[in-house]
Fold this protein.
Amino acid sequence: MGKTDEMVGVVERVAVVSTGLPVRRTPVRPLVAVSAAAVVGVAVLLLAGTRWLDHPAVQAWRTVCLAITVQALPFLLLGTVLSGAINAFVPADLFTRVLPKRAALAVPVAGVAGAVLPGCECASVPVANSLIRRGVTPAAAFAFLLSAPAINPIVLTATAVAFPGNPAMVAARLLASLATAALMGWLWLWLGKEEWLRPAVRHTGHHSGHNRWTEFRHGFQHDFLHAGGFLVLGAMAAATFNVAVPRSVLDTFSGSPWLSVLFLAGLAVLLAVCSEADAFVAASLTGFSPTARLAFMVVGPMVDLKLIALQAGTFGRAFAVRFSTATTVVAVIASVLIGGALL
């Protein structure tokens, strides 16, 4: 055993003795790499006065990265609080009793239930993970994960404000997002494999003889620190794209109906704008068709860089690559069909 493993073992034994709760053994190297990258990113964001950090491009990168992180952090905090509360306080069989027994029916019900979470995609990932740990079928949890940031009242209200006098855009976003969430849940039932899904392995539910608030704090700390590092990585990647790609590229794609849809779908993935704000970004892209802007708003809350990073850290890279790719395709098709009919 190396020195690093020995230190980790000592920390685990101290934690078990002090809290009475088991500690999940996580591979050291991936978490060290994520933590190091996150620390570097935060350092670049905060440091000022160094000559090369005052370059306009670096300042723009720092501003965008900080904006994405600050914008998403409250919702990530909300999600991890909900996740910890579900783990510590909610009876283990509640969700399995509420949702229909048949998985095919549980998927659309979970998709509609996504409207009750007023947050963005950062909040939905830890909550979906907690639901899976509580016995909810993964297909229903994934439908919830996709619909929650796209159809909640805050997002729909923001869309109505961003597109005044255009209720068809709000309806199109609601229907296309809900259709994508349900289709992806059913697609997982049909083609999904358990080996692709590797959720975090730690205690689920209340320990007999332990304080529930202690368990809540333990679960919250784990989920927030784990997901926060991947959030910073996603924000760094999105900021790099914002700074590196010139604005003139937008004009190149706006003239073609098909290329404009694909381009704005890809742009939504790279920009990683929070779902509460993406309608205003879409409304500002006046050179693009309404269907293309709809695709931007449907794809963004379901597939973006920070969400892919959060999914990879929570469920594993094999899941994140397959799920994000399939979701993008389904979301684009749903946007084109529903946008073509309503817009």
